[in-house]
Design brief:
Layout lengths: L19 E5 L4 H12 L3 E6 L2 H13 L4 E5 L5 H15 L4 E4 L14 H29 L2 E6 L12 H21 L4 E8 L5 H9 L3 H7 L9 H12 L10 E4 L10
Helix pairs in contact: 1-8, 3-4, 4-5
């Protein structure tokens, strides 16, 4: 790609130049890929993560490369800590244009055996925290009259495994939350969409494959494209949805799963 952002075919790539993007869970995996991709498209990027050392190392690495990037250690389930961290980042980097809710974790549970505390702790991160970041981030977008929220859901919102009921419920809820954000915030010029990744080769997925011998081969065998996704595949979609190239896209869910969810079992 040439310095003007044009590819070899003359197509202008989505650009985020001059825009402040905030990413949660940005220290590794899909979140890190999103941070890097947004920076590569000219954005100012702030990211939050509970992984302090990894977040600081990534910030320092990117800063040494000349990137305009900021990091705050934060447990985003703590509303007071989240509000404070976001206030610092907005103060230092300016009002938000883009908000990417990526932070989350898996949950394997039995519907009877799971405790209320386990349920509450999980949903505080995988659903409630996405509302909280919007609660604290949307005012600057409303003031500017523009913005884009991208929430990272999952194909588990559409299809799932046994004992994944908390994860499937949270990701389904995130899609519902996003749908209403699109309706409620459209009058302020703010768009909201979800991206639903399928199997993506993150450290979390690799650890699951390692713990379940043979699972990688079985899973790969049912993928129509014959390969797993990479974090960059998700990041590219996120950057597109943050950009003006997606100016008329809101309230939608985009599956980045290599057609996995398009097939019947068997």
């Amino acid at each position: 790609m040439d310095p003007r952002g044009r590819g070899r075919c003359g197509v202008v790539a989505p650009t985020l130049a001059g825009r402040h993007i905030l990413v949660t869970g940005g220290a590794q995996g899909i979140g890190e890929a999103i941070v890097r991709d947004c920076l590569g498209r000219g954005a100012t990027v702030s990211f939050l993560d509970i992984l302090q050392e990894r977040g600081q190392n990534l910030r320092d690495e990117l800063s040494d490369e000349g990137a305009d990037v900021r990091f705050e250690t934060c447990d985003i389930t703590d509303s007071a800590a989240l509000a404070s961290a976001m206030e610092i980042l907005v103060r230092d980097a300016g009002g938000l244009f883009g908000l990417v809710n990526n932070a989350g974790r898996n949950s394997y549970a039995d519907p009877v055996e799971m405790t209320e505390k386990e349920w509450d702790d999980f949903f505080n991160l995988d659903l409630k925290a996405s509302w909280l970041t919007c609660k604290f981030g949307l005012p600057t977008m409303r003031k500017a009259g523009a913005g884009s929220v991208v929430n990272i859901a999952s194909v588990h919102a559409h299809m799932s495994y046994p004992n994944y009921f908390p994860y499937a419920a949270a990701k389904s809820g995130l899609i519902g939350l996003t749908r209403n954000l699109a309706l409620d915030e459209g009058r302020y010029g703010i768009r909201a969409n979800t991206v639903s990744p399928g199997f993506t080769m993150t450290p979390l997925l690799k650890s699951w494959f390692d713990a379940n011998p043979g699972s990688e081969e079985r899973t790969l065998a049912v993928h129509p494209l014959g390969h797993f996704g990479e974090p960059q595949d998700v990041a590219s979609m996120v950057s597109f949805l943050l950009s003006d190239e997606a100016r008329n896209i809101s309230g939608a869910d985009f599956r980045v799963d290599g057609a996995l969810s398009a097939r019947f079992a068997g």
